[in-house]
Amino acid sequence: MKKSQAQNKQALRTQLLNKLNDGHFHLGEDLASELALSRSAISEQIKALNKLGLDICSIKGRGYKLTNHIELLSHSQIQAALPASSQGNAFLIQIENLVSSTNDIVKAKSHSVPYVDSGYCCLAEAQSAGRGRRGRNWVSPYASSLYLSMLWRFTGGHQAMTGLSLMVGVIINETLQSLEVLNCQLKWPNDVYHEQKKLAGVLIEVEGQVGATTSAIIGIGININLPANVQGINQAFTDLSSITKKPISKNQLAAALIHKLWQNLPIFEAHGMAPFMARWKDCDLYYKKHITIVAGDKIITGTGNGIDNTGALLLDINGSIKAFHGGEISVRQA
After folding, report:
1. Is Repressor among the key words of this record (predicted)?
2. pTM, whole model, 2 decimals?
């Protein structure tokens, strides 16, 4: 499909959603007339939206409407919610409808001409091939979560990026705190939890030569209001609508997170994890907990003892502190 055709399709889908999202029923023939489509084309669009995970109520003689109101991404709303110091960079924000993954969009943009600056980011309503750490699938229902990826170029190369996913976790947590979402914890190396359930995740993808400027594509997913019938998530999870009674605006959340990343990534690039160590420790999910780490073909048990300046996990094993740069953590059963 040509780019212009894809853009037209996205624009049409957004127009249809805006109509279905107003709380009223709309007859198929009325939608067809208003959007200059055939009645069968409207029916196909409705089916496509259902496949994306949207719950559309259909009643004969009354028409269609979204069962639950959704908030769609809005560049103008995000820009308006940015603090004054960041509004001049709003041109770096790109909003898409359905993409393979926001990381894919940012990765392609990082190689484009003209040169794209650090801080460029892409947000999307849904991902058809979202992914998490170790290639796992990231379930991405339509308009139910914040899917955001940001480009940052590190002139210091790979060495300057050590601990980046941990720093991003700190920033996600502090952003949530600013919106009165409290008591979240950080799971090494890339997750945000609330009451032992996953709320958000980070995926860092790196491109570049050793010793040269390196590009980091920082992928972030935050569950906002997942459908009751969501499928394909194989671990305990939660979303913002389950945590707080106060609705969280997706556009406000996006603006706050983007601003904090723009503020803190230069600090991280200059000083590494040092300015973020205490902030991580305050929210460490496994600090002083008995845990098991699977690293390669080894299974090691011990007590979580925080992280070091490189972002490595520190494990107290019978009084000896060992550092681990990779692996999977679980709570050790008594």
Report:
1. yes
2. 0.89
